[in-house]
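Sequence design from tokenized structure. All designs in this work follow the same two-part layout: the structure record, then the generated sequence. An example of the structure record is given first.
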């Protein structure tokens, strides 16, 4: 890899993945792009405004920077996708197909595209959901991810595009605001705790979901991108796991450091989405194929966020 283009770079994952890749490959060799204005978290490296549904615009950037790798993160996430199903399908599918076709025609080295545990539906095993589980999602976001996984596998099989993917669990970070996902409560809850405010959770207190701290998500992504091709054996998308917890458990983790923290529960339409997803994920394929292993448990994640978020909030005021 010499030059990397990241789409959706202003999002939660995009901001931190951009920084992680720049640390490895150099600031000028990682080009951040987004339809939104540049996020301050992206720093001083190259940035381009890009609508991923504009194939000609994307091709122009690939040519301009001599891109050989695309990390395609731009998407409409689960909760927001339910509010605009036609946009979700168009953005999530057309953007991916633009990337895959450009990779095929320009013979790019590789493509990374994120899938999600949203591919699993109510018929999947809830505990330690296996890699090869049925994928019958109940949300439009999940439908786009299942379709995307099949497109990725097809382009690899038919056109030898080296496309790689992870089925992310809920991602928890503190450096950017939530982006409209069902697991976003686990980001907002830390902001409320530090502000000394009670938190109203839109999920039930015992609603367990697979989660991952953003540092581990970036690590998993970079590990997979850098893995030797012969070690990448799953061409739909790899299960990856780190921690699973309920809203009550994350609240208790916070109380270990902020004893007076209060939480209430007012489940809304997002509870139905969460109930259709697994409680935990079996990621043994990722662990055996390219040695995936997370570094953060719930309490270590809580400590890291509560130590670092105040300074970030102070600098953004």
């Amino acid at each position: 890899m010499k030059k990397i283009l990241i789409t959706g770079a202003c999002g939660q994952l995009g901001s931190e993945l951009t920084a992680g890749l720049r640390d490895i490959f150099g600031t000028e060799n990682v080009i951040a792009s987004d339809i939104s204005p540049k996020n301050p978290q992206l720093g001083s490296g190259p940035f381009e405004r890009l609508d991923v549904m504009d194939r000609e615009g994307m091709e122009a950037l690939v040519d301009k920077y001599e891109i050989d790798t695309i990390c395609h993160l731009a998407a409409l996430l689960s909760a927001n996708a339910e509010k605009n199903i036609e946009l979700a399908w168009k953005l999530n599918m057309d953007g991916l197909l633009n990337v895959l076709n450009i990779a095929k025609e320009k013979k790019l080295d590789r493509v990374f595209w994120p899938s999600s545990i949203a591919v699993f539906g109510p018929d999947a095993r809830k505990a330690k959901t296996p890699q090869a589980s049925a994928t019958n999602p109940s949300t439009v976001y999940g439908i786009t991810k299942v379709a995307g996984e099949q497109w990725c596998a097809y382009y690899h099989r038919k056109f030898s595009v080296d496309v790689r993917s992870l089925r992310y669990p809920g991602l928890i970070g503190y450096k950017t605001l939530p982006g409209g996902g069902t697991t976003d409560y686990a980001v907002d809850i830390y902001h409320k705790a530090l502000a000394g405010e009670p938190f109203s959770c839109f999920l039930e207190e015992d609603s367990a979901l697979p989660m991952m701290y953003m540092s581990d998500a970036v690590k998993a992504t970079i590990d997979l991108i850098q893995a030797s091709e012969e070690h990448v054996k799953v061409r739909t998308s790899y299960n990856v796991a780190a921690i699973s917890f309920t809203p009550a458990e994350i609240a208790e983790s916070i109380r270990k450091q902020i004893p007076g923290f209060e939480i209430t529960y007012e489940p809304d339409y997002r509870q139905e989405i969460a109930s259709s997803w697994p409680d935990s994920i079996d990621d043994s394929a990722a662990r055996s194929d390219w040695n995936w292993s997370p570094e953060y448990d719930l309490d270590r994640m809580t400590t890291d966020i509560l130590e670092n978020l105040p300074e970030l909030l102070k600098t953004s005021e």
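The chain has two domains: 4-171+213-239, 172-210+243-280+297-316. We note this feature because it recurs in several other targets discussed in the main text.
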